[in-house]
Amino acid sequence: MQFWLNLGFIREVEQLPALAVAAEAAGFEGICVPDRMVMPTQLQTDYPYTPDGKMFWPKDIPFPDPWVSIAAMAARTERIRFATNIYLAPLHDPFSAAKAVATASLLSGGRVVCGVSAGWMKDEFDIVGVDFASRGARLNEMMEAMRLLWTGEPVAYEGAHIRFPEVILSPAPKAEIPIWCGGGSKAAMRRTAEHCQGWLGLWYPADKAIEAVTQLKAMRAESTRADEPLEALVGLVGKPDAATLGPLEAAGLTGIIATPWAMDDARVTSLEAKQAAIAGYAQRFMT
Fold this sequence. Notes:
The protein has 287 residues and is an alpha/beta fold. It is built from nine helices and ten strands. An eight-stranded parallel β-barrel has the order 1-2-3-4-7-8-9-10, surrounded by five helices. A two-stranded antiparallel ribbon has the order 5-6. The chain is globular and about 55 Å long.
């Protein structure tokens, strides 16, 4: 079982490189960082993953650019992987997105995973001027277009939402960039099964995580990618002891996303406290 560190919703953005060093030293497989372009002060869209539709984070929480953050953390580390959880690719044009991801992959030595999602906040799409209703179809085309652009060869694309003549994206990545899909909806899981190398699930108790990954594996078995491996990560509600991890791994889950300083409802801000929480989590659960 892999363990990935969640570095989202941190106000002290300048701590990210040092936290990446601590995570690598503790034995974490990877680090997840979120994405948000802008946060409307007057939000009209309900958050789909809470009973009351309210977000669980303050509107002024920082969302640093994920690819700049990954490049900064990669410069301080050697082994640990990095994934966006998630990158709102439909809000971007394919060239800016593909170039940012490719550059981060090059600078990290191929340690980058592009985790994407269609998104849920209509307000953000409206502000940026991107059609919200077609975001899923646009995301599917974005994944195809970015994979073409990452080859570094002359490529063209003709889709319903994305079109461009023959172009070359340079620099091209030297290693394959896996695309994972995030989300717990049927549409997100179907997109994962049909188009992606991995899945970034929601926060689940163990029984719901098993249920979700079992559903995902069944969708994968019915897809054209049935014979390809599939990584699957979720945030686990509860403590990942051996009795919990065994059934999860047997169901096909490959990784746990953890926020160590939240395990005991601790509210920490200092770098030293977060570093201690990372080391303590590894000692308690990862050995």
